[in-house]
């Protein structure tokens, strides 16, 4: 998700946000700036964190006016600190004013996710386990939020329901059991698709192994239950643990040796990174 192709995929999201904020005109800006006057404004960081979404920030202004120039003094994934000048935006002051909030909203949200992800990933430092996100994302913002997870040092789970088979509790109930669900998935899904099964107890673990699941997700199990589950699996499937994984408890799981830890909190609970556009001046 790098480069111009990704930015073009994001355009409909950004245009929708701009239309939401400017339904007909920016009344305030048009009142105080009736004509085009060139100017600059600084992007400032107000707290420590990890920056993510710089291409999106710049793209918002470009969609309003391709002549706007953004000069960055940092790169994606950089650690940033309070008071740091991250960029200067130069162009028609009317565009700087009208695009300010939308550009900041995206950048703050994405940087907040990258910051939280980096903190969780650091708790797993040295472990073989990969940190994954989930589909617990803001509707219509998944592209940007999952990108921010990657910038923060995490990895993406499936992007959407078309990406892979994940048999959760309700799928298993609908199919009539773990073995039945896996058999039906194998019969239906293309052979290149891995089949993952969510299990909640050791009996389900045994069934998933016997059914030939490719990945077994240990959901909301205790530490001891997960250790016993891994002994039962014995490397016959990849393993993932999930269920209320947060910055506070993920380090305790590093010793298990699971392949993946999925953490919905990366996207549904990350606070924004506080940023602002200040020091607007005519040039």
Automatic annotation (TrEMBL):
Described purpose of this protein according to its UniProt entry: Involved in the catabolism of quinolinic acid (QA).
UniProt protein name: Probable nicotinate-nucleotide pyrophosphorylase [carboxylating]
GO cellular component terms attached to this protein's record: cytoplasm
Enzyme Commission (EC) number: 2.4.2.19
UniProt key word Glycosyltransferase: yes
PANTHER family assigned: NICOTINATE-NUCLEOTIDE PYROPHOSPHORYLASE [CARBOXYLATING]
NCBIfam families, per the entry: nadC
CDD domains: QPRTase
Family: Belongs to the NadC/ModD family.
SUPFAM superfamilies: Nicotinate/Quinolinate PRTase C-terminal domain-like, Nicotinate/Quinolinate PRTase N-terminal domain-like
Pathway annotation: Cofactor biosynthesis; NAD(+) biosynthesis; nicotinate D-ribonucleotide from quinolinate: step 1/1
Tree of life domain: Bacteria
Assigned keywords, A-Z: Glycosyltransferase, Pyridine nucleotide biosynthesis, Transferase
Location of the Quinolinate phosphoribosyl transferase N-terminal domain: 26-111
A Pfam short name: QRPTase_N
Residues of the Quinolinate phosphoribosyl transferase C-terminal domain: 113-278
Enzyme class: transferase
Oligomer status and interactors: Hexamer formed by 3 homodimers.
GO molecular function, one term: nicotinate-nucleotide diphosphorylase (carboxylating) activity
One GO-annotated biological process of the protein: quinolinate catabolic process
Reactions accelerated catalytically: nicotinate beta-D-ribonucleotide + CO2 + diphosphate = quinolinate + 5-phospho-alpha-D-ribose 1-diphosphate + 2 H(+)
């Amino acid at each position: 998700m790098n480069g111009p192709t990704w930015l073009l995929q994001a355009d409909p999201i950004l245009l929708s946000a701009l239309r939401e904020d400017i339904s007909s005109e920016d009344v305030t800006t048009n009142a105080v700036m009736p004509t085009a006057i060139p100017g600059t404004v600084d992007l400032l960081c107000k707290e420590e964190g990890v920056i993510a979404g710089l291409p999106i920030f710049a793209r918002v202004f470009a969609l309003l006016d391709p002549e706007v120039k953004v000069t960055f003094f940092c790169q994606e994934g950089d650690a940033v600190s309070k008071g740091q000048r991250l960029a200067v935006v130069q162009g028609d002051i009317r565009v700087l004013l009208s695009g300010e909030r939308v550009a900041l909203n995206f950048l703050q949200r994405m940087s907040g996710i990258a910051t939280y992800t980096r903190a969780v990933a650091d708790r797993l430092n040295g472990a073989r386990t990969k940190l994954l996100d989930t589909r617990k994302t803001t509707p219509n913002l998944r592209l940007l939020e999952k990108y921010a997870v990657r910038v923060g040092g995490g990895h993406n789970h499936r992007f959407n329901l078309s990406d892979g088979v994940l048999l959760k509790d309700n799928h298993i109930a609908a199919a009539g059991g773990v073995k039945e669900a896996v058999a039906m998935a194998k019969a239906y899904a293309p052979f290149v698709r891995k089949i993952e099964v969510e299990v909640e107890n050791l009996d389900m673990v045994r069934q998933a192994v016997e059914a030939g699941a490719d990945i077994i997700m240990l959901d909301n199990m205790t530490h001891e239950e997960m250790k016993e589950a891994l002994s039962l699996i014995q490397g016959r499937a990849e393993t993932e643990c999930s269920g209320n994984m947060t910055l506070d408890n993920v380090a305790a799981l590093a010793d298990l040796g699971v392949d993946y830890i999925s953490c919905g909190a990366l996207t549904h609970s990350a606070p924004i990174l506080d940023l602002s556009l200040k020091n607007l001046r005519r040039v």
